[in-house]
Amino acid sequence: MLLRPRHLYAFFCSFLVLAFALSAQQKQPEPLATPILGFSPPHAAAEHQLESTFQTIPSPEKARGWHRTLTAEPHPAASERNNYLADFVADEWRKQGWEDVTLRRYDVLHSLPRRVSLEMIAPIQFTASLREDAYDADPDTKNPAVSGSFFAYSASGDVTAEVIYAHSGNPEDYDLLRKKGISVEGKVVLVRYSNPYSYRGFKALTAEREGAAALLIYSDPAEDGYTRGKVFPDGPWGPESHIQRGSITYDYIVPGDPTTPGWASVPGARHIAPEESLSLPKIVALPLSWRDAKPLLENMNGPEAPKDWQGALPITYRFTGGVKVHVKVDMDASMQPYTVVEARLRGSELPDEWVLVGNHRDAWVFGGVDPSSGTTSMMELTRALGELKQRGIRPRRTIVVCSWDGEEFALTGSTEWGEQFADDLKRKLVAYLNVDESVAGAATTAGPEGLSFSPSAVASLAPMLVQASKDVRAPSGKSLYEAWRATAMRDSKESTPPLDSELVETRIGSGSDHTVFLNHLGRPVINLGFGGDYGVYHSMYDDHYWMAHIGDPAFEYHVALTRIWGLVALRLANSDVLPFDFGFNAAALEQFLRELEQQNRVQPRRLSLKRLHGRIAEFEKEGNLLRGAVAHDLLSSSPSPEKMQRLNEQLLQVESNWLDPEGVPGRPWFQHLLYSSRYTYAHLEFPGLTEAVEKQDWKLAARQAALLEKAFEKNAKLLRSARSSWGKNIR
Hints:
The model is unreliable at 1-30 (pLDDT under 50). Helices cover 40% and strands 16% of the residues. It is α/β, with parallel strands linked by helices. It is globular and about 80 Å long.
């Protein structure tokens, strides 16, 4: 039977009439539909029916076609191809029936190389290729439009100096060098990408602060090469010439266009001079393949580095000794337009409440995984929702979709768009659902359990995400929920699967387009994606061949991601009461606070957090009471639309109340009291408090704790008031 209601309310009604008629014919009651958080039973039944229809639409073959188109040519931000893809996405969304399709232009400081070179001049002569090898198996690797090695926003410069190996380039690595009597001032520092992981922009800032003249970052096979398994084109890991391009902007201080910090770079906007920007590096930097780094490392003759600094190359890694290089980087920093594509399906009942879904479009080269797997899933999502709209089924709330530009450079497109529409977003945005990479792993090496589902979310939305996963089928044939638990148990090497409360990662760092919505605007976010073996990040080999032969040959994971993305979006858009769980949220936050105390050995004589624990407990109590009252009344009665609307406004206000307009000390753009990121992009909870404690600045820590106490007290009162109002005149 093909359902064609004019909008969702009519869909609910027609579904109930049909259910009543069938019940009367069969003379026995129909079983209740599986409950959905935030839905009354009849609306949950209608939502399940709608979701079943939605899930039949996404197609692996359609996904394969999207992916081939998106990855046909290199398409970095500001390139002709990326601008073509902006028009392509806009045209497709119009064909799919999306409304208000708009291309938003932002004039931003862009960064591209004119010329880069690296030569070893002692003890032997060697010229680095700074290029990646082509393979006959993959014709795309022979595309002449592929760039060589460069870091966006590197400073220009010409440096001749000794090379120092500094392991991962984190502060503790320089501390060890100092203990060994080795200074990097005026030297060229050579570091590895991931041991442990830290964002390349943090490595650049750290080297800059240490006084280094230049920075080289290479991919050691210990992290993403042959020691992990088969390499491209035979496996998912990086071959000897693969280069991890990237940006080294300091977007953990201020993301977005470096010349419009805190305001949108719309045409005609004021721009500061680049030298005034807090986010632009002042150090010369280049990425290297391990093939280009090996001659530098193996020709050192100084003291041997410790065991945990040794990599996988068949050489002895040394701190320094006799290697001198000439590095030349000439960058073109100019203003260029970036384009965000925006569209929406206007809500049938609540058009001024928005659910936002998005993915970035720009890639360093072909972007097979990053971002085109996500773009592929997004295009299938918009096609499926567009088809529902063509059948007359609209969401209750407006669904907005955006194709971001310039994410790879400084999280730029989403940041500028978020800053441009900040006032509307703070009032109207229910949640942002981000997919950067939908399939960042190799299904061909994942084993019987398959790729790992690895979402993250603010804790208030974690329970609804777990619940939604039970209604999506994974490529393994299990429900996504069952597959998720199985891979989580496998990856953690535990003998039992995790609890539902442990499935969602509720610690959220930075490095993707959710940043502006969570950290600057105070809106809830969810990140979705599958992961596994993947060693060609930001290289030429991250392309359609890798995905079609190694990553997701059947394109089933792309479709599974579309389905869970769509279900979460539809439930947020159609729910009677927004499915925030502030009781669960508080429990997670209490755990974060206890970890802060334990890891930093916080002594009450220096900083008492007793009052803050009490405020969190009060917030948890009120969250649990409100959740119970709402669930009971949705099940047993029919609250009026006006009452539910008032409650939803209060629930959204809770999330807004976590913002502090003064921001994190030293980083005022980041305004969320609960969530931020470290300079490495790693998650950082209670950012102002945590950074003060780690610096042992107890006066600042006390002020930050007081801000948190006030926010928790305010939100506990808000939830108490919401429960009181909800309990009156239910109908």
